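Hey, can you fold this one?
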Amino acid sequence: MKPTARHAVLSVRGLDALIHTLTDDGFTVVGPTVRDDTIVLDELGDDATLPVGWGDSQDAGSYRLRRRDDDARFGYAVPATSWKRFLFPPRSVLWRAHRSDRDGFAIEEGTEAAPRYAFLGVRACELAGIGVQDQVFLAGTHPDRIYHERREGVIVISVQCGAPAASCFCTSTGTGPRADSGFDLALTELLDEDRHEFLIEVGTARGVDLLERLEHRVASPDDLEAARAVTDGAAARMTRSIEVDGLPGLLARNVEHPRWDDVAERCLACANCTMACPTCFCHAVEDVGDLAGASATRQRRWDSCFSLDFSHLHGGQTRSSTRARYRQWLTHKLSTWWDQFGSSGCVGCGRCITWCPVGIDLTAEVRAIRMTDGAPAPDAAVIR
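Sure. Predicted structure:
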């Protein structure tokens, strides 16, 4: 591939200038940083707050921060937290009511000002996760107001993945490790004994404007070859995979598979997987009033299909067992999500595997069901 006007090279100092330029433009720059022995997403002040020289080791039920032998800014897999919390906050106000006179209330919508976000360091799988949530919250007849206000105008600066974790499987879901669209700028960190630079790929007119305000040089064919080697190497090092062909039908045929009992014996129903997932959107709505009865607030907060009361209807819970709740999560994520939104709900980031306290691996669960597939589909009446 020959370099074009879409390709340039930025220095490490140029990366710092990019962050300051975005901040000067009034954006809240969110990116990776180290906190509590993990790499998380938070507001950045300057390049010094990036996880310089830090990497991670992730596997089933295991996360460890580790020191690298270089000064990589993006030498990790995916942060512990996802971008979801900035677009779909863990808690948000839907409306407030205040007693206006003796007999009535005045109602107003939630008035929290939406920040102007610039996301720095978005991996390809995470771009796909944002795309999935865009479909959930914006593509329907009634777009979600809070999500729309936060999503509108977000500048996305992606970083191509060069350090996948053992829990990653984005190659098999078709969501990484290279991002080809969905960004304003995409960076590939080029780091060896001789240099430390970033290949820039421009994705939008806003990206062009940003690049023109930064000191850079024109990319060479060697730069592009080096950048391609980064993501090719990441793909080659990925060890986990999931066979997606026929997956919705496979799960639909096996709602009474004995594997659900096996996983239920291990699952704690703690909801870690859904909280860490970049696409899960289950939530609850609750009303909070003051003791004087003068005001009330309706709030939306994250919830999980692993919570016992999440499926509560008149008469009791629809899914009262851990078996039923794990099955609901997995079959929705990989099967019925297609019916609702026209895509899978899984982007292969591996967070649900890493942050499961008992190391349950959805790729292994799917593989176990596939290996013993063949049972006829049960009658819908017996699905509990």
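The CA atoms of residues 306 and 325 lie 5 Å apart. Let me know if you want another pass with a different chain boundary.
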